[in-house]
Each structure stands twice: as C-alpha cells, then as structure tokens.
C-alpha cells in the first residue's frame, strides 16, 4: 500500500495529560509524528491539534479509530482526504552576505525580514508546504544557519460536504 | 465531608461489596474511614494479587472489581494486574494513593508518576487534584470501566485531597461529551449480514470474550440453534456457548481442536462475535480462512479490520445485535457441512494417552466430572491453562477465568480468591502450574485468614512446562533454565500457611483427593498432582504456521 503524508486534525478536551495520551498512542504503535501543533480554541475547554503523519491507508484507518477511541478526543478529521487549506509558519536565519538578493527573494514571496543583524538576517514565511519548500530552495545557496517551524495547521475549506 | 469519606460513600453508591488491597502512608485517611467497616476490605499480601482478585471477582460476577494500593511501590505493584485486566477488557476501578499535591513532581518519598505509568494500560485514568472533583470522578470511573468495551480505570488520589473537606454531592447523571459507545447495530449492516448468512454453505460462528462481557450467551445459543451453524470459541470465549452442545467445536487456535481449526479454514463465512482475530487464533494471517467472508460484531470499532479484512462490520453491543439477528435468520440446510465436521470430529478427537500414569488431562477430566462441570475454573498460564481449556467442559458463561491477552503467570490463584468472594456458593478451582502458583503463593495467608475455600490443583511437572515444550519442539531439546529443581514441598507449604495440603502421585488417588478438597468449606486446599513431567499440549499450531498445519494429538 502506498505511503502518503496525512494531516489529521484532532479536537480534544483541554486538560493535562491529553497530549501525553495522543503522543503515547502514536509511539506505542511505532508511528512517527512528523509535525504537531496544539493550541486552545475559542472555547477554552477545547484544544485543537494538527498532526502530520506518514502512512498507508490501513495504518491511517487504525490511527483514526484509535484516536476516536480516546476518551478525551472530541473529533478527528483526516484533512488530506478532502478539500483543505494548510499553512505553516517558519523562521529562517540566513547568512547576510548578499542582502540585496535575499531581499528580492523575500519580496517575491511576499514575506518579511523580521530581524537584521551584522552577520545574519531572520526571515519569516507563511505558506503551504509547497511554497515553503520553494523558498527554502532559493535561500539555501546563501547559507541557512537555522530554521524554526511551527508545524502545519489545517482547516477544511468551504467546498465541503 | 472529607475526601476519604466521599470515596467510601461513593463506593457504597456504586454497590461495591468488597475491596482488595494493601495500605500505606498516603492512603491512611481513606483507611481511617474503612476502619468503620461499612465496606468489606480484604487485605492481600501483594498488590498484584489484589488487582487479580478484583479481576477474578469482576469476571465471575459481571460487576466492577475494586482494588486499592498506596503510592509508589504499591501502585507499581498493581501494574501487572491492571495490564492483565486491560488486555481482556475487564471492568476494574483501581484507587491509588499519591503524595500531597504540593509535593507532586518533587521526587517525594514513595512518589511515582502513576497516571503516566498506567496510561497505556487503562481505559482512562485520573489524578484528582481537587476534592470538589472527587465524587464526579468516581462516578465517571465506574461508568467508563463498565460501559462500552469495558476496562480498568485508575484514580490517583493525593493524600491532601483525601483530607480535604467539601459538601458531598453524588451526580446522578454523567456527561462525557466525547464518550458515546455505539450499542445498537446498524440495521443496514444487520440486513446485509442476514443475507450473507442465508447464502452460506459452510459457516462458522467464532465467539470471543465479548460474548461473555455483554452477557449474550443465551442469544448466541439461539442464533446457533436456529441456523444450525457450528460454534467455536476463543480461550476467553469458553463458556459463552455450552461446551457439551452438539454444535460446539470447542476452542480454536494454537491449541484448539483440529476440527475447529479445520472448520474455520474451510469455512465460507465466519461470524466473529466479540473476538479480535488475535495471532494465537488465526495462525499465519496470510493463509487464514482463504475462502471465507467475514461478519464482525464488536463494540470497539478499532477492533474491526485490525488483523483481517472484514466484509460486514457491525459495531455495537453483541447482545443487542444478536437479538436483532435472531429475528431475521432462518434455518439453514447444512447437511454436507455437518457431515464433514462429523468426520473430522471422529477422525481427530481431542485425546491423550490414558494409561496407568498420572497425566494432567486425566486430572482435569476428573475435576470436571466431580464438579459436574459447574465449578468456576481459573487458570495460571502455560500448559495448565491449555489443559484446563481443553479437558473441562464449560457450559456456562463466567465459569472459566484465564489471563488470555497478557498471559500472566500468577493470575489464577488470586483470581480464584476474587471469584470465590463474589460467588460464595460455588466451587472454585485454580488449575495451576507449579511455576505460576509460586508467583502469588503468598496469598494462601489471605485465603486462610478470610476463610476462602478455593482449591488449587497444581499440575506439578517440576518445570516451566509450556516453555520446556517449546524448547523440546523448536530448540533442539536444549532445556535452558526451565527445570524448577523439584521444590518446594507444596503440601508442607500449604500446611505452614494453615491451609490443607494433599499430595497425589498415583492415578487412583486423584478422585479421593478432589472429593476431599470439595468437602472442605472453610480453608483453601492445595492438591499437589505430581504429573508426568514430559507431557505436552497437543494438538499445536507452531508459531507462524497456518491454522490447519497442526502437529500432534492424533489418536
Ligand atoms: C509473569 C510471566 N512470566 C513469564 C511468562 C512466560 N511463561 C509462559 S508459560 C511459562 C511456564 C509456566 O510454568 P508453570 O506455571 O509451571 O506451568 P506449566 O506450563 O508447567 O503448566 C512461562 C515461564 C509468563 N507467561 N508470565
């Protein structure tokens, strides 16, 4: 079966121990979490998690069933299976040897330089994984010193049933 | 009311009759309330045994079992018992003491991260930080443990919360917005299942522990009798359908009957009820029942299509779903199929060499005969467990208690004590191995002091028999550390604990020993059956082989 990257959106009770339960569910079955983001929602008793995970259909079906089985889980959606929007924020620290060119690339992507230092600049970029890949590819020749990523977040679009 | 008083009030509200456990520093407030003796408390000699007793009590009665331990080592000693219950979906509530809330996380004396340790082996667990949450937590714990797919729930209770004061209010209703087990099967799925059943020519029912957990054995019997479909059971399913019924194929799987395994492999339809296609049951999964369509009835959606592809899943409570199916199914004419099964049954019966020697199968048969198949049998793990499954006829649910999923040596004896406490009028036998019995042998004291007349039938082969069997068959008879060196003298051990001990080394002594044990109404009785040490459990599907590639056990 074909392995694919999936983005799973999990709505959970906002309580201590819940993150450990979810993480434990993945680790106990030997599944690796590629990316994870968690935060409180509009309703402070509820948290929203977005989990990136690789696997075939069978593994994914099991993951979703197991997540649903957890007492603290309110809702599970595999966003990959339908129309969805995804974004990630990354911060990239690049060698500041060629500022003019860096600025050009940053402008083309509609992103921003958020810190300018003697030796390096820090760039902020928001986008889907494709856009982030592109920008990183263009920045790499300048020498990337550090990258910090938030992990993906995703939401269903309106074209949804 | 104090937190400790709330615990006792709440347990009374949940109709708890008995608690098993051991105390320590951080549960002193709770035990100060238990001192009033409003609830029966049985002091064990090891916390693992307390958890198994609660488990045995739960399996025998269908009620929730309750055990208590102190923090740190008390809680970690419960772990094996909790994991055993979790693997077999047994409803337990475990209450552990915890260090005072301001100390949590400080590596305080006897502190362990109990909720962290037990998270993967409980259905749910709680750390109660505020006495205001206590009553609701206990209510939820009992509800979660006993509903849906049952399982153990742990409540970790810091000592200051036990001492905290609040107004007692026990919530009648519980709202857990995320937890709504599906109980009623989907009508469309039931319709589809009915159609498949109607078309089948070689169907089998494969019944697991879920039949017993949902109290669905009379419905299962009706379904089988209406349709004429033969029934095979998993280890945990034994008793879910009468073993003496003409439609019974006995147990399937690694040490199942040949006819059960052949029937499953040649079937064109498997109706799985509360069973999970565990690897000990399916053999090599790629070759399992190649021509069979599968209907899978289970309360847990995650059990479906986990190991084998299922054609018609029906999620819900087995009892409800079987009620619906019974209304729809019609008698099938399965003469050819039954003819085939009859031939297998006569060609490959479950037998053993019944000669002058003292053989374990004979012992189990005699226990069955003398108890008229009506005792509660618990088992340890290993050969004893398989002989108990093969040679005793279980005709009723909740009479065969065994650690199936985890395979915990040391389970049977404390489970027998728990079962006897729950069913004082029944005869309870632990069919034991000499290795396993030594894992919780200290509970002889508990049984003596509390007048619990369980009988322990040790099938004493002086070795770790099941492992020895694998070494004989698959490791060139290199018996690495499976010889137990002969000791101890179990009769003397029993006497030293104040129990009765009977030694048996001849076939002729078997019957009188069992009778004598059954006459004892107050004390536990240990019967040391010194059996043929090299006896093996057959037939057997070697690990990794197809279910129909069985070795041994031919007459
Ligand atoms: C706690 C635990 N430790 C180890 C094992 C592995 N094991 C399975 S069967 C067995 C031998 C059991 O010996 P005994 O209780 O004498 O029973 P017999 O097989 O001889 O009937 C062992 C060691 C286990 N199942 N449980």
Please name the defining characteristics of this protein.
heterodimer; A: 161 residues; Alpha-Beta Plaits; 2 domains; 4 helices; 43% strand; B: 555 residues; alpha/beta; Rossmann fold; 3 domains; six-stranded parallel β-sheet; 22 helices; globular; binds thiamine diphosphate
Strand and helix layout:
The complex is a heterodimer of chains A (161) and B (555).
Chain A: E1 4-13, H1 18-28, E2 33-40, E3 46-55, H2 57-69, E4 73-78, E5 84-95, H3 99-108, E6 112-116, E7 120-127, H4 129-139, E8 144-149, E9 153-156
Antiparallel strand pairs in A: 1-3, 1-4, 2-3, 5-7, 5-8, 5-9, 6-7
Chain B: H1 3-13, E1 18-21, H2 28-34, E2 40-43, H3 47-61, E3 65-69, H4 73-87, E4 92-98, H5 114-118, E5 124-127, H6 134-146, E6 152-158, H7 159-163, H8 187-199, E7 203-207, H9 209-213, H10 217-227, E8 231-233, E9 248-251, H11 258-266, E10 269-273, H12 279-282, E11 293-298, E12 312-315, H13 318-328, H14 335-347, H15 360-370, E13 376-379, H16 383-391, E14 400-401, H17 412-422, E15 428-433, H18 434-437, H19 444-449, E16 455-460, H20 465-474, H21 490-496, E17 500-504, H22 510-519, E18 525-530
Parallel strand pairs in B: 1-2, 1-3, 3-4, 4-6, 5-6, 7-8, 7-10, 8-9, 10-11, 11-12, 13-14, 13-15, 15-16, 16-18, 17-18
Helix pairs in contact in B: 1-2, 1-6, 3-4, 3-17, 8-13, 10-13, 15-16, 15-22
The complex binds thiamine diphosphate.
Explain the overall architecture.
The complex is a heterodimer of chains A (161) and B (555). Chain A is of the alpha+beta class and 161 residues long. Chain A is 28% helix and 43% strand. Chain A is built from four helices and nine strands, in the order βαββαββαββαββ. In chain A, strands 5, 6, 7, 8 and 9 form a five-stranded antiparallel beta sheet that branches. A four-stranded antiparallel beta sheet of chain A has the order 2-3-1-4, with helices on one face. In chain A, β6 (112-116) and β7 form a beta hairpin. The longest helix of chain A has 13 residues, at 57-69. The relative contact order of chain A is 0.20. With 555 residues, chain B is of the alpha/beta class. The mean pLDDT of chain B is 97. The radius of gyration of chain B is 24 Å and the shape is globular. In chain B, α2 (28-34) links the parallel β1 and β2 (40-43). In chain B, the strands form three sheets. A six-stranded parallel beta sheet of chain B has the order 2-1-3-4-6-5, with helices on both faces. Chain B has three domains: 3-163, Rossmann fold; 187-344, TPP-binding domain (Rossmann fold, 3-Layer(aba) Sandwich); 360-530, Thiamin diphosphate (ThDP)-binding fold, Pyr/PP domains (Rossmann fold), CATH 3.40.50.970. In chain B, α1 runs parallel beside α6 (134-146). Chain B has helices at residues 3-13, 28-34, 47-61, 73-87, 114-118, 134-146, 159-163, 187-199, 209-213, 217-227, 258-266, 279-282, 318-328, 335-347, 360-370, 383-391, 412-422, 434-437, 444-449, 465-474, 490-496, 510-519, and strands at residues 18-21, 40-43, 65-69, 92-98, 124-127, 152-158, 203-207, 231-233, 248-251, 269-273, 293-298, 312-315, 376-379, 400-401, 428-433, 455-460, 500-504, 525-530. The termini of chain B are far apart. Chain B is built from 22 helices and 18 strands. The interface between A and B is medium-sized, with 18 and 17 residues. Residues 380-384, 407-409, 433-436, 459, 461, 464-467 of chain B line the site of thiamine diphosphate (TPP).
């Amino acid at each position: 079966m074909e392995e694919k990257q999936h983005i799973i959106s999990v709505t959970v009770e906002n309580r201590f121990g819940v993150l450990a339960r979810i993480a434990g569910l993945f680790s106990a079955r030997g599944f690796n979490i590629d990316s994870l983001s968690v935060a409180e929602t509009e309703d402070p008793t509820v948290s929203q998690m977005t989990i990136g995970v690789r696997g075939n259909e069978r593994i994914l079906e099991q993951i979703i069933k197991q997540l649903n089985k957890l007492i603290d889980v309110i809702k599970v959606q595999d966003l990959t299976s339908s129309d969805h929007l995804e974004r990630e924020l990354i911060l990239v620290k690049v060698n500041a040897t060629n500022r003019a060119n860096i600025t050009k690339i940053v402008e083309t992507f509609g992103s921003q330089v958020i810190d300018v230092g003697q030796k390096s600049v820090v760039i902020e970029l928001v986008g889907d994984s494709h856009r982030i890949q592109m920008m990183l590819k263009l920045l790499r020749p300048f020498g990337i010193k550090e990258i910090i990523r938030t992990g993906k977040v995703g939401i269903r679009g309106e074209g949804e049933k | 009311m104090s937190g400790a008083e709330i615990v006792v009030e709440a347990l009374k509200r949940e109709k708890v009759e008995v608690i098993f456990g051991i105390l320590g520093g951080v549960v002193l407030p709770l035990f100060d309330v238990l001192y009033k003796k409003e609830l029966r408390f049985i002091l064990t000699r090891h916390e693992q045994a307390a958890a198994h007793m609660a488990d045995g009590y739960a399996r025998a009665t269908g009620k929730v079992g309750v055990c208590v331990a102190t923090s740190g080592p008390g809680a970690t000693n419960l772990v094996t018992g909790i994991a055993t219950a979790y693997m077999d979906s047994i409803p337990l509530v475990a209450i552990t003491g915890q260090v005072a809330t301001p100390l949590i996380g400080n590596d305080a004396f006897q502190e362990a991260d109990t909720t962290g340790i037990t998270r993967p082996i409980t259905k749910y667990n709680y750390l109660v930080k505020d006495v205001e949450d206590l009553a609701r937590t206990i209510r939820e714990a009992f509800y979660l443990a006993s509903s849906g797919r049952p399982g153990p729930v742990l409540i970790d209770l810091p000592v200051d919360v036990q001492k905290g004061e609040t107004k007692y209010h026990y919530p009648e209703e519980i709202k857990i917005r995320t937890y709504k087990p599906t109980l009623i099967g989907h009508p469309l799925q039931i319709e589809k299942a009915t159609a498949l059943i109607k078309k089948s020519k070689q169907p089998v029912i494969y019944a697991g522990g879920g039949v017993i957990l949902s109290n669905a054995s009379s419905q299962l019997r009706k379904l089988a009798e209406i349709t004429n479909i033969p029934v095979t059971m998993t280890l945990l399913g034994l008793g879910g359908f009468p073993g003496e019924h003409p439609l019974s194929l006995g147990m399937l799987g690694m040490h199942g009957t040949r006819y059960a395994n052949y029937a499953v492999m040649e079937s064109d339809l498997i109706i799985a009820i509360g069973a999970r296609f565990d690897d000990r049951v399916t053999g090599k999964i790629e070759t399992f029942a190649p021509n069979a369509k599968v209907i899978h009835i289970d309360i847990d959606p995650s059990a479906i299509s986990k190991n084998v592809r299922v054609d018609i899943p029906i999620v819900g409570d087995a009892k409800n779903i079987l009620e619906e199916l019974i209304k729809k199914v019609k008698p099938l004419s399965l003469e050819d199929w039954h003819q085939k099964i009859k031939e297998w049954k006569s060609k490959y019966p479950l037998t053993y060499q019944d000669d002058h020697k003292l053989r374990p199968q004979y012992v189990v048969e005699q226990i069955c005969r003398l108890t008229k198949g009506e005792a509660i049998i618990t088992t340890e793990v290993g050969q004893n467990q398989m002989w108990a499954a093969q040679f005793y006829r279980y005709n009723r649910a909740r009479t065969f208690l065994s650690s199936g999923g985890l395979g915990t040596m040391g389970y049977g004896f404390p489970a027998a004590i728990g079962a006897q406490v729950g069913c004082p009028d029944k005869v309870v036998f632990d069919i034991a191995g000499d290795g396993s019995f030594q894992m919780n042998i200290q509970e002889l004291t508990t049984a003596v002091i509390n007048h619990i007349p369980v009988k322990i039938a040790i099938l004493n082969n002086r070795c770790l028999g099941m492992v020895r069997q694998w070494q004989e068959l698959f490791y060139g008879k290199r018996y690495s550390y499976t010889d137990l060196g002969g000791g101890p003298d179990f009769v003397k051990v029993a006497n030293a604990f104040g129990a009765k001990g009977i030694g048996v080394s001849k076939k002729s002594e078997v019957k009188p020993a069992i009778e004598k044990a059954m006459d004892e109404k107050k004390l536990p009785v240990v019967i040391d059956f010194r059996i043929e040490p090299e006896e093996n459990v057959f037939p057997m599907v070697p690990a990794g082989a197809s279910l129909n590639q069985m070795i041994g056990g031919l007459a």
